[in-house]
Specification:
alpha/beta, 167 residues, 6 helices, single chain, five-stranded parallel β-sheet, elongated, Rossmann fold, 5 strands, binds flavin mononucleotide
Length: 167
């Protein structure tokens, strides 16, 4: 098979991106499975999706990636914070390190994804320390912004990402 899309998604954001990536992939030699469904189906190129959990991907994604050998691997993910390029670069570094050396890393696509309301509630109480207070306000801002993601623009960017990878 040419392409395999495998994703981990707790609340559906990453699944949405996975579905878009899957539909943008050309031909019929492709499949998409969640990590729970995935039983080792082989392909030349893997698109691996994850949700950001405390700055990196969850363990199940690491385990899956570590077993790949001689494959082309592209990553995609969603995260709550919209801190931009630097934050995204940090996530990329932490996740791609788990791709075995005999695989070819093709690149990453990241976008924001809405977060569970419990996260907002955790940061709603104001702090006396001005540094913590500024940080808290930023998280609330990110939370509210993330409520609208992934949006149409994110899906468009995901499709473009596939185009770039396949060029
Ligand atoms: C336990 C937990 C930890 C999280 N950690 C982070 C984080 O470190 N950075 C971040 O930007 N978003 C974080 N998020 C937000 C999720 O990555 C984000 O909402 C993502 O889109 C969820 O994807 P899913 O719907 O595919 O599960 C966290 C969410 C949860 C529930």
């Amino acid at each position: 098979m040419d392409y395999m899309v495998v994703y981990s998604s707790k609340t559906g954001n990453t699944k949405k991106i996975a579905t878009e990536i899957f539909s943008a992939l050309p031909g019929m030699s492709k499949d998409m499975q969640s990590l729970e469904e995935y039983k080792g189906k082989d392909a030349d190129t893997f698109f691996i999706g994850f949700w950001v959990d405390r700055g990196t991907c969850d363990m199940s994604v690491i385990e899956m990636m570590s077993r790949l050998h001689g494959k082309k691997v592209a990553l995609f993910g969603t995260c709550g914070m919209g801190k931009g390029e630097r934050y995204y670069k940090g996530i990329e570094q932490k996740v791609k390190v788990w791709i075995p050396d005999d695989c070819e890393y093709l690149g990453i696509f990241l976008c924001q994804g809405k977060m569970p309301m419990q996260i907002r509630e955790k940061y709603e109480i104001s702090r006396e320390d001005p540094i913590q207070e500024a940080w808290r306000r930023q998280i609330l801002k990110d939370f509210d912004e993330a409520l609208f993601h992934p949006n149409e623009e994110d899906l468009e960017h995901a499709r473009k990402f596939v185009g770039q990878i396949l060029m």
